[in-house]
Amino acid sequence: MPVSGSVIVKMLPGKRPCKECGFPTCFAFAMKLASGGATVDKCPYLSEEVKAQLIDLLAPPIRPIAIGSGESMVQIGDEEVVYRHEKTFVHPPGIALLISDKESEAEAAAKIAKIHDLQFPWVGVTLKADLLALRFESGNKGKFVGLVQKACETTDLGMVLISEDMDALFSARDVCADRQPLLYPITADTLETAIPRIKEKPTPVAVRGESIEDLVALTARLKDAGIEDVVLDPGSRNPLEAVRDQTLIRRAALKQGFRPLGYPTIALPFLMAEDKLKEALIASLFITKWASIIVLSDFDRYSLLPLLVDRLNIYTDPRFPMAVEEKYYEIGEPDEHSPVLVTSNWALTYFLVSSAVEATKVPAYVCVKDAEGLGVLTAWAAGKFSGDSIAAFIKKCGIADKVKTRKLVIPGKVARIKGELEDALNLEWEIVVGPREITGMGTFLPEFARQLKG
């Protein structure tokens, strides 16, 4: 629950009008603190005790945690709402592929190769799994450490290290501590043994309880020890209990501001179903119901792609349509005699148009007009894809310097703006009405290109 400026101002020293924080009054400073526009260290008169209280009050309701490093880092937590329509979900759950040290070296290598190979271009983004989950099952600590070492040598992906044996867990951690692996599980039985070892080389840890109440005691003890990069597993092992626990944790953190549960969660569908289809279905449940890390025993393109698309849809900000940058795009290797088309910047529209143009094997320029992420017809109805606005874009985007032809193809569904656009371009361009449907591009564009070069 966000803290208000009126609460914060009561905790400030009130030495007015010192202005040493850079703001005219303490209340102005408090409002900036509440909105994230300032930090507590700007006030030179705060005691360390009050500063610590303010930092705790201003901390995100669900702690942000990073797993992995570099470009492969997975950010989780830092969420603000229970339901997506309230605002947006911020960090998509990391999907992890499980590798046991009981598997052969060839099987482990094949899984590592698989997680790199199964990547899907999708409306301007690349969909892929994010993490490796390496599990100690063989009883041979050296074999587990060797698996972790091999993974470090062959991939830069973030890792979840899974071991009930604390000695094996921390030995594996030592191999890859700089990669910020997540250590799982820390339980009530292993907590006191684990705390000093966690503090030796701090990395995120996942705690497992028999219930949500157990998690409260575990996180409180870890916080007292100065360990706050924590992930939660309430121990539920069937879908009904899992949804119940995920809901209680989320609501406690966001609605009640209950700090001991203000952490991201991990879900383990591989422990809930032996059937791979059921495992994928349970994983889709956790994508919807707030898990921050989801560990799968295995996947292929047919099970992984639906999960990734589901994740993309849920974690796309509903307030802003997916859009591409306003500019002209080169499809193939167009020259000064190539066709010039214009469309809106809704990502789906652009990729349909560009794919259709590419399929014709006719090099062309596609000019993408910023329409605030709306499709062509919707943008026209909203006044964001009009003759005047398109003309202004064509004049400034630089396409006139790339082509000698002065013929501009507009979508057939907005044929009515033809005259308006020609007038706005001072008749310097001839406006050509293209096909109404993208399926017509295959016959329209090759013939149009022949006319240009004829």
Question: If you consult CATH, what is the topology of the largest domain?
Answer: TIM Barrel
- Could you say which structural class the secondary elements and strand pairing correspond to? alpha/beta
Helix content: 25-40%
Specify the CATH architecture of the largest domain: Alpha-Beta Barrel
Percent strand: 15-25%
What's the overall geometry?
globular
Question: Would you tell me the overall average pLDDT?
Answer: 92
Number of domains: 3
Would you identify the regions where 5 or more consecutive residues have pLDDT less than 50?
A: none
Q: At the fourth CATH level, what is the homologous superfamily of the largest domain?
A: Dihydropteroate synthase-like
Question: Termini separation (Å)?
Answer: 67 Å
Radius of gyration: 28 Å
Number of helical regions = 16
Supply the CATH class of the largest domain.
Alpha Beta
How does the major sheet shape up? Answer: 8 strands, parallel
Count of DSSP strands:
17
Strand numbers in spatial order across the main sheet? 10-9-8-7-6-3-12-11
Fold topology:
Elements lengths: L4 H5 L16 H10 L12 H11 L6 E3 L6 E3 L17 E7 L4 H13 L1 E4 L2 E4 L2 E5 L5 H14 L3 E5 L3 H11 L5 E5 L4 H10 L4 E4 L3 H13 L5 E4 L5 H16 L11 E2 L8 H13 L4 E4 L4 H14 L12 E5 L8 E5 L2 H14 L3 E6 L6 H6 L5 H11 L9 E4 L7 H7 L5 E4 L7 H13 L1
Parallel strand pairs: 3-6, 3-12, 6-7, 7-8, 8-9, 9-10, 11-12, 14-15, 14-16, 16-17
Antiparallel strand pairs: 1-2, 4-5, 13-15
Helix pairs in contact: 5-6, 10-11, 12-16, 14-15
